[in-house]
Amino acid sequence: MDKELYKIIDESKKKGLRTFVFTSLGDKDFGSKAVVREGELIWISPDTSFFKDNFDKIKDMTKPGITEIAGNRVYVEHICNVSKIVICGAGHTSIAMIKIGQMLGFEMIVVEDREEFADKARDAGADRVYCEDFSPALKKFKSDYDTYFVVVTRGHQWDKECIREILKKPYAYVGLMGAKRRVGFVLDAMRSEGYDEKKIEEIYTPIGLDIKSETPTEIAISIFAEIISVKNAKTKNVGYVEGMLEKIAESNERMVMATIVDKKGSAPRGVGAKALFLRDGSFIGTVGGGKAEHDIMVKVDEILKSDENIKPYLLHVNLTDSEASLEGMVCGGRIEVLIEPV
């Protein structure tokens, strides 16, 4: 696989651009790829004409997984960023959210206009803290479709500042805390300023799932429950874990990428899960462990030891109950794994 492709993927992730990678798994140009970013074809394998000929069919596709294009089987991968949570306000609930967010793997960002409260957010472990007025801070902040905004300021005038700027940006979620009357002031102000009614109606308020929360920590848990529900409902299948793209960029050694492109029944990992295998026997990421990883590693070892120019290969791994039980697994199912030399 061309390393230039990984540079493009890395750039797309860093910039938060909507990017889809298409891989042919059928008879037409098997293993060839195309990258569509923000609706434009920006990269294509040099040995293919299939995606160029069918660009009109792929340019608006947003659903990841296996599909059929012009009678040819194609794997669609949606490249996403690390999920970020931007908390506007650094009160007790925010501090609890920072600590929980760290455990869940979110990048935690806080905007707070009071220095003493901003310091508390830093002490709690926020990845980034912007200590300035809400409106200018949010104007400068670059969000993407994997950014989750949580507005928990100390009053509706600051809520309005935040919502006013957030609704101009890309985002995955906007949650607004406050009593019904306070929230009503904010939403009515946005309507009077001409903001899209659909966007206003999409604001999650009252914020968080109703779990009868009482303490700041319980409120934080309810907010995260709602955010996780929204996040996991998104149609994405990104599998580039931390360190994977960096390793590809810095190394000239032969490596092999394994990606789960389809599954039937139950399996340890979902479609899009990846593992990058290195020549020294180490790997970054996982495609599930157990029998799945063992079968993949047998094929990978064969590729890494060969000096030949080996083409992409589609491996079928059977995890049916009878076979899985022999391996100490109880999941069952079948997965298809695309194995590609890097």
From TrEMBL:
- Which InterPro entries does this UniProt record tie to the protein? MoCofactor_Util/Proc, NAD(P)-bd_dom_sf, XdhC_CoxI, XdhC_Rossmann_dom
* Domain of life per record: Bacteria
Pfam families named among the record's database cross-references:
XdhC_C (PF13478), XdhC_CoxI (PF02625)
Q: Which residues form the XdhC- CoxI domain?
A: 250-309
Q: What are the residue boundaries of the XdhC Rossmann domain, all occurrences included?
A: 85-227
Q: Matching SUPFAM superfamilies, A to Z? A: NAD(P)-binding Rossmann-fold domains
Q: What is this protein called?
A: Xanthine dehydrogenase accessory protein XdhC
Task: Tell me the organism.
Answer: Lachnoanaerobaculum saburreum F0468
